[in-house]
Amino acid sequence: MDSFGPNGNEDSLPPPPPVIPPDVEPAKAEEGLPPEPIKKKPSRLPIARRGLGSKGTKLPLLTNHFKVNVANNDGHFYQYSVSVSYEDGRPVEGKGVGRKVIDRVQETYDSELNGKDFAYDGEKTLFTMGSLARNKLEFTVVLEDVTSNRNNGNCSPDGNGSPNDNDRKRMRRPYRSKTFKVEISFAAKIPLQAIANALRGQESENYQEAIRVLDIILRQHAAKQGCLLVRQSFFHNDPKNFADVGGGVLGCRGFHSSFRTTQSGLSLNIDVSTTMIIQPGPVVDFLIANQNVRDPYSLDWAKAKRTLKNLRIKTSPSNQEYKITGLSELPCKEQTFTLKNKGGSNGDATEQEITVYDYFVNIRKIDLRYSGDLPCINVGKPKRPTYVPLELCSLVSLQRYTKALSTLQRASLVEKSRQKPQERMRVLSDAFKTSNYGSEPMLRNCGIQINSGFTQVEGRVLQAPRLKFGNGEDFNPRNGRWNFNNKKIVQPVKIERWAVANFSARCDVRGLVRDLIRCGEMKGVMIDQPFDVFEENGQFRRAPPLVRVEKIGFLLC
After folding, report:
1. Maximum Cα–Cα distance across the chain
2. Signed CA dihedral, 20, 25, 28, 29: sign only
3. CA distance 491 to 494
4. Using CA atoms in the order 234, 235, 240, 241, what is the torsion angle rounded to 10 degrees?
5. So what's the pLDDT on residue 169?
């Protein structure tokens, strides 16, 4: 058959099909063709070891794995897609809100859900052990918005009513409720048998998905305990786990927990983990430590505004939680807002301009010691700010610090994170006991039991490699160490062309060169005298590093 021409002309069209007589019955095309082969999904198997080692001296080792027994291999995980939206249809995007909504769904509609427990990933997926009543379910729940931006007893009003009137409203109705719509739709079915098949080396398409469900159960269990979740690492709000690394940053010690398939079967792996968090407590203390200044009057407020953006605080004395949206443009004693007072001479509302400082000190009767000359924290919206004096704000605990650490902070973190084996074993045992996985209903429904002792395996101590030195000398390291003193290199080279760039005012360059040549000679390395020594001009010592290198006139290759 001819193909179409590039210009689509009639000349390039194929001839019309022949006319079929009315008494002819056309045959079905598929009857004469062989059936298409069924495409088989690629199977996934765990990587098997080729064999076991045999060299070295055998010894027993304790590992940070806890053996897991699965009694319910015939069960299935049912995966459902979750959609959470507000009453007007807008999707819910705030972190942590989804878990509160799903918890409320379980509480409110327990009978409709047949008492099923959920494993919810905090976003758009949940799992159950066994199926729900229908493939698609819709629910409506109401939550009290405990972190709403309503004015409270110690926040300046935004011009929409008198503070006393707001106080009376709060006493009658402390929280603002929100309505959420939840849709749960069936997505997939995952057999628990897939894990057992994979451990036996059989073909299994779903074992990775089944392991993922078990890990989601661990995350949900930690979330219910109030932990900070960082993937599969969990951090409790316990000051004993905090280590100050400077700059208003703390190293928070926690633990990693996940299920693993091993040659010995399924196991729970627990290990120590550390993440960086903001120093909780008064905001002013954090800023002073972060900028390394002596008092709040020396702070760089432009930098402080960037640092505080989106951090969560609690205000006193109401203990209400807010998210920081910015800082006021003026100090507390100068920043004004319009205060509406009801009950004038003719019953109409009156307005007056008042400073944030005067409002808190004279109307709220709250003593402010140092906030008058400092900016206020803004917890409102851009067009409707709500100001709180700085000294009434404290940072909430377990807020991650995601910026890069300085060299000193990294060194401090490494030093304070170091643990001896016995201490590490104690920490992991305590983490396992604190987690109390035996109380998790989803794990019980799966028939999962976790042994409380460390798994023992057989290890081997390999012989240390034999080292070769100069002059044909051999050496056997002891306890993983060796001493290079009075030894020479096997194949030394001669260093002929080299130079010195001196950026230190107190360095004895001649002595440095002499000692370097002498040390090289002791190791068998012959070093000639440097062809030149470049000294830095003292007037550039405070310049940036790149400028200092350029000014010294020496090109580092």
Report:
1. 113
2. negative
3. 10
4. 80
5. 39
Confidence of residue 40 (pLDDT cuts 50, 70, 90): low
Per residue in 342-362, pLDDT (tens digit) is: 765 565 677 888 899 999 988
User: Is there a contact between 378 and 337 (Cβ–Cβ < 8 Å)?
Assistant: no
Query: Would you state the pLDDT for residue 534?
Result: 87
* 3-class SS of residue 219: helix
3-state secondary structure of 103: helix
Tell me the pairing of strands 532-535 and 499-502: parallel
DSSP reduced 3-state for 30: helix
Quick check: 472 pLDDT over 90? Answer: no
Per-residue pLDDT tens for 386-438?
999 999 999 999 999 988 889 999 999 999 888 899 999 999 999 999 999 98
What average pLDDT does the chain have? Answer: 83
One-letter amino acid at 190 equals I
What pLDDT digit, counting tens, does each position of 249-265 carry? 999 999 999 999 888 88
Predicted pLDDT of residue 185 = 93
DSSP 8-state code for residue 451: -
- Tokens 């009694």 belong to residue: 71
Instruction: Please state, in angstroms and rounded to a whole number, the distance separating the CA atoms of residues 239 and 104.
Output: 30
What distance in Å separates the CA atoms of residue 99 and residue 106, rounded to the nearest whole number?
Answer: 11
The CA–CA distances, whole Å, from 425 to 261, 429, 431, 450 equal 22, 6, 10, 17
pTM, rounded to two decimals: 0.71
Please provide the DSSP assignment of 470-514 as one string: GGG-EE--BTTB---TT---SS---B-S-EEEE--TT--HHHHHH
Task: Establish how many alpha carbons lie within 13 A of residue 331's alpha carbon, considering only the half-sphere containing its beta carbon.
Answer: 9
Cα of first residue to Cα of last residue in the chain, in angstroms, is: 68
What's the rounded Cα separation, in Å, for the pair 406 and 294?
Answer: 20
Phi-psi group of 408: left, alpha or beta (phi > 0 → left; psi -120 to 50 → alpha; rest → beta): alpha
Task: Decide: helix, strand or coil at residue 102.
Answer: helix
* 307 in Cβ contact with 287 (< 8 Å): yes
DSSP state letter for 363: I
Residue spans of beta strands (DSSP E) within 279-349: 281-282, 312-315, 320-323, 326-331, 336-341
